[in-house]
Design goal:
75% helix, disordered C terminus
Length: 347
Amino acid sequence: MTIATTPPPIAGEVIDPPPKETPDKVKQIDEREGAVGTGVGVGYRAYARFSHSQATLLAGGTTYYMFLAMFSILAFGYGLAAAFGADQIAEYLTEAIGEAFPGLLGEEGIDPEQLKSVGQTTSIVGLVGLLYGGGGAVIAAMRSIHLIYGAPKDPRNYVVARLRALVWLAAIGPLILVSFVASSVTTNVSNQFLETLDITWTGPGILLNISTALLTLGVNFLIVYLLLGNFGGIRPPRQSRLIGAAVGAVVIELLKTAMTLILGFAIDKPEYGALAAPIGILFVLYLQAMALYGCAALTAGITDRETPLEVLDVDSVEDAQDAIENASDEVEVTSGEGTAGSDEEPA
C-alpha cells in the first residue's frame, strides 16, 4: 500500500525546470566511511528535507501563532493575578517576559500595571487568545514536523486534534517558562539553601552560572526531544532524537543569548516607532521556529543515513503525471473488461 504524503501534481504543462539531482561529488563523498562521509551524507539529507518541505515558510506560519500566544499569555497572566490578588504571579511573569524579550515590558513597552488594572476582563480575553494561539502553535509545529518527516496528514478529527494540542501546550508551556527564567530559579534555590545553612556568600557566582547553564540546556533538550519524538507522526530512532535534541538545545540557547542584541537593535531604531519591539520579537520567534524545524530535518537526515541518495531524489513532475495517467488508463481498462464480461454472461 502506498501512502501519499503530498498531493499529486495536477494535469497541465510543466513550466519549471526539472528538479536538480544529487551532485556526483556528494554521492562520492557519501559512499566514504568515516566522519567526512557521514557528515556530508547526513548534512545533505537534512538540507534536502529542510528545503523540500519549505521549512522557512512553515516557520513563518508557526511564528504567527507563537506571537499571538505570547501576548495572550501576558493578558491572561496579569488578568489572573489581578483577579485573585496574586502579585507573586505577576512578578514571576514580568521577570520571565523581561528575560525572554528585553524591552517588551517597561517604560518603552507594555505597562504591566495597565494590564493588571483591567482585571478579570483581561484574563478572559487572554485565555481565549491563549487557547487559539497556543493550540494553533502546537498544531502548526505538528503539521510542519509531519511534512519534514514525510508522514501523512494526521487523521484525527478537529476536536481531538485541538484537545491533544492543548494537552501538549499544558505540558510544554511550563518547561518553556522554566527555560527562560532558569537563572532566577537557580538563584532563588541557592539563596534559600544558603539561608537554611545560615551561610552568607558574597563571592563569585561561578558555580551558580554553571548550574544555570546546565539547567537551561537540560530543559531545552527535554523540550526538543519531546517535540521530535511526538509531533511528527513518525517516531525516529532514539539515537537520531538524542543528537537532534542536543543540537537543538545548544542552538536555541544561542538564539536566546543573541535575543537581547536583536531586540536592542530593533528598539534603538527610531524609524520603527511603536512597532520596534513587535518587529524584533517576530524575528526572534521566527528564528526559534526555524531552529526547531532545522533540528527535525537533522534528525530525519541522521535516520536516512543508510538510505541511498537515489531513493531520496525528487522525481520529475512529468514522471509523476505519467504515473497518474497510466494508473487511470489501467482503471479504465479494468472497468471495460468488467463491463464486457457482464454483457456476455446473460447471453
